[in-house]
Amino acid sequence: MVLLLRSSTLKIAVYTANFSLYQLEDESAHLDEMPLMMSEEGFENDESDYHTLPRARVTQRKRGLEWFVCGGWKFLCTSCCDWLVNICQRKRELKARTVWLGYPEKCEEKHPRNSIKNQKYNVFTFIPGVLYEQFKFFLNLYFLVVSCSQFVPALKIGYLYTYWAPLGFVLAVTIMREAIDEFRRFQRDKEVNSQLYSKLTVRGKVQVKSSDIQVGDLIIVEKVDAFLIYFRHVYASSCFIRTDQLDGETDWKLKVAVSCTQRLPALGDLFSISAYVYAQKPQLDIHSFEGTFTREDCDPPIHESLSIENTLWASTIVASGTVIGVVIYTGKETRSVMNTSNPKNKVGLLDLELNQLTKALFVALVALSVVMVTLQGFVGPWYRNLFRFLLLFSYIIPISLRVNLDMGKAAYGWMIMKDESIPGTVVRTSTIPEELGRLVYLLTDKTGTLTQNEMVFKRLHLGTVSYGADTMDEIQNHLRNPYSQVSSQASGNNTSSTLPRKAQSSAPKVRKSVSSRVHEAVKAIALCHNVTPVYEPRAGMTGEAEYTEADQDFSDGNRTYQAASPDEVALVQWTESVGLTLVSRDLTSMQLRTPSGQILTYSILQMFPFTSESKRMGVIVRDESTTEIMFYMKGADVAMSSIVQYNDWLEEECGNMAREGLRTLVVAKRALTEEQYQDFESRYSQAKLSIHDRALKVAAVVESLEREMELLCLTGVEDQLQADVRPTLEMLRNAGIKIWMLTGDKLETATCIAKSSHLVSRTQDIHIFRPVTNRGEAHLELNAFRRKHDCALVISGDSLEVCLKYYEHELVELACQCPAVVCCRCSPTQKAHIVKLLQQHAGRRTCAIGDGGNDVSMIQAADCGIGIEGKEGRQASLAADFSITQFKHIGRLLMVHGRSSYKRSAALGQFVMHRGLIISTMQAVFSSVFYFASVPLYQGFLMVGYATLYTMFPVFSLVLDQDVKPEMAMLYPELYKDLTKGRSLSFKTFLVWVLISIYQGGILMYGALLLFESEFVHVVAISFTALILTELLMVALTVRTWHWLMAVAEVLSLGCYVASLAFLNEYFVCLGNVAFITTVTFVWKVSAITVVSCLPLYVLKYLKRKLSPPSYSKLTS
């Protein structure tokens, strides 16, 4: 009976981890008095002499008005909203359940649909949700208030369209973009929810959609898409499943069918029995399950306990064959969905910084309006004048800022997807491309992300001789000789059987020794494992009743291997490649085929499976032809070094292979007599029957065999890395990005990949954080870690959870100082929690990259999530903000596109603000000259045209600007490091632009008033023409690399303005004197004002580049 969870339903999350933070009052008091040490000297002293480090930086809570002003109002609003949401959406209490086989209608409670939903909104919440997301930004909220004020006659200072048209355009663009993104999410969900599965009914098989699967249905499964209990395998009583999408572990898991249902003669009998499953309530733990199976229609009723071995979770894949299971949990109640966090609306750091600058501009706007009213002398209805001044100067805060930035983001996304160097890249969240240029922490999965999850046998070392990939043919020759002699002896007569002996005795003694050692080593590798060869039935054989052994195809091409570890499969595939092939295996025997075609049969007497505690596995076999009993064992070098006989090469060679990034296994053997084995078997059986300390007694009996074993060989297996992983990681490190590897795999595997991928350089030490279970152990281990300098940290998920419970701040602070961090045995929720801890404590931008369903929580929690479309499915890719096809593409995505997006948006944002500031400065000068009258300088079409037709194209063309070529950005990743400091957009650069705006606005307005004193009626045309020319020249001043579209935009905008002068003269010339605009006087005076406003800035820019050149200037020269 197998619990099946939908492998396709991992996108939505209904659970976010709620780890305990500092519990300052629990645990024993003496630990509170024992702070973490600060120095090496302190570690050597008594505990009372430890230097203190506070466990948490706890600030005193602010009270009263100070607390309210400093953010309390936001906390209160959020709390009220959460309370209302909880009232409206009460979560249904999760309960244990009784599920009848094949009868979903008998379920007492209503269970959630088995569908995924990645959409942020529904039909009713879309418009309110999008509007809320827009108006929570101060910029948009401010313009909404300003636009609404124009409905009040006393406050109206222009046409309604001058305010509502830009605002409406912004909202229309935003709603359209969100609608497109939402529709794409809907289509992706629909595609997944419409996948067809075979459902077993009384009438036979029927096809049902994934979303129509119900609790109680009997599903015929190949890929698990709901939570099932495993009832029956079509051909065997067990199967292997892959869980890498769920927990990140690459090991295949053995699952066992419920014996009662497996014994039924035919599939249809599942409906003829009266049986039900009682299952525990849905929970997060993916490593445990408790339930019972009951069959009522027999006397007495049959009861079987159910455990994790009888279940298939959603997001797992049946490795071979077909199984039948009953659905227990669906949709939101599956383990995979419960371990996934809710997707959030991500806002880029650049947007937040611009929002802060907008608030600063608003303060300046209010201050300027108050100054104008004060200079006016507060005469008449001064408060109305104050509001009119606020409206007159409202262009200080440009509404076009959001339009330009949003269009810029769309342009960056288009450029990323059209880049031929990173084919297949998809931008799924178009609002945060600039985040790719601000990253400090990259959190990556291992399996399928850094590695291909394909094991390849690389090295066999016998102590005196080593074989690599280029010398495997020698091993084949060594194997062919002994097996050919055995076969010839078996087939020949007495005379012929003596010939091989003569030939053998005349051969050199060393040659014989090496051949026999190679033979023994390969035979040990071929026998010591838990691999099962599987043969698929011949094409067309679909029924179960007609299936017989004769229908199987036993050819080599039809054979696949199943095992709990890909390492073991790689070893058995290698023995096949050198001539010794595993052809069959069951619980009691296995058969090998020699290079000459002979079949060797071995009885399996005992199996000792691999555990994380023992770090080794063993098997006792009897050769049926010779009745020889042999005990083979293989395991990690740390476990095997004390078991094998003395040698002087094992430790050194293990170190050499580990430095090459190979996963090592030590293989040993021990010959047993019949008496020795019988004695062991009796003691072993007795130990397994003991009630108390069974595990310890069994381990003690097995250890009695593990003495003075003969060391046969050392094997090296490589988990192949993704293409160009090493240079990509090196590039990211040079760019100042710290890389953390979060994986669900074992500690040894994770450490090995960290070395082979050069995540940890060869010169760096690795500190493996010992397992800790309580506060005291965590305290001592953290002190030991603090003494290490410049070393990578490797920590397991269990130890991490204990440390975070008591010493969260210290652990994160120490880990952030490490050049690399590896977290192994991490659950999906822990991965997301680590991301959130980095965001809280480090305050830097994080990026998560993964390819499996177990990475979705981490990807959604990070500031920027990147998914890889790989062998583990598309779940991570679909949930991510950016989707790539290979890990190496992240280099160009960050170094080129991320860097360019940020620098372009920073320049674009500041230039748009400059455009609003300069016209507001001119308005202030104009009002000051005319006795502080709240009269607009430019009206109607001019104000709309200034922000759109006349300057929009040149300003927006800044999204094509680049300071260095993409090739240079890839070659010198150090350029990326500067961006994390945020110098492209800061209060310093903002103030520079403010000063430029004040200078130019003052020059333009005063110049127009001075030069055109006799023709004052022409001041609008003169000042506005000079303003447009100044803006076009400023764009040219800002550009670093010209693109042909930039030149087109400049010429087009100038042409539009000249045409406006001719056809819209009523806006410019009060007396309709068009001839004046064409005079030489007009032209030279406008040119003079423009030159005075721009030339000093060109000179200053030239001097700055000469005296203080930017970091990229040497690369562009």
Automatic annotation (TrEMBL):
Limits of the P-type ATPase C-terminal domain: 878-1109
Region annotation (Disordered) ranges: 483-514
Any one Gene Ontology cellular component term annotated for this protein: endosome
Membrane topology note: Multi-pass membrane protein
EC number: 7.6.2.1
Transmembrane intervals: 161-180, 360-380, 386-405, 912-934, 940-960, 990-1010, 1016-1037, 1044-1064, 1076-1100
Reactions performed catalytically: ATP + H2O + phospholipidSide 1 = ADP + phosphate + phospholipidSide 2
A single GO molecular function term of this UniProt record: ATP binding
Chain intervals with Polar residues compositional bias: 483-507
P-type ATPase N-terminal domain boundaries: 107-164
Residues binding ATP, per UniProt: D445, K446, T447, E568, F610, K634, R663, T743, G744, D745, R825, K831, N854, D855
Domain of life from the UniProt record: Eukaryota
Cofactor requirement: Mg(2+)
Compartment annotation: Golgi apparatus, trans-Golgi network membrane; Membrane
Keywords: ATP-binding, Golgi apparatus, Lipid transport, Magnesium, Membrane, Metal-binding, Nucleotide-binding, Translocase, Transmembrane, Transmembrane helix, Transport
GO biological process, one term: retrograde vesicle-mediated transport, Golgi to endoplasmic reticulum
Cross-referenced Pfam families: Hydrolase, PhoLip_ATPase_C, PhoLip_ATPase_N
InterPro entries: ATPase_P-typ_cyto_dom_N, ATPase_P-typ_P_site, ATPase_P-typ_TM_dom_sf, ATPase_P-typ_transduc_dom_A_sf, HAD-like_sf, HAD_sf, P-type_ATPase_IV, P-type_ATPase_N
Active site, per annotation: D445 (4-aspartylphosphate intermediate)
Family, per entry: Belongs to the cation transport ATPase (P-type) (TC 3.A.3) family. Type IV subfamily.
Protein name stated in the entry: Phospholipid-transporting ATPase
Species this protein is from: Canis lupus dingo
Gene symbol of the encoding locus: ATP9B
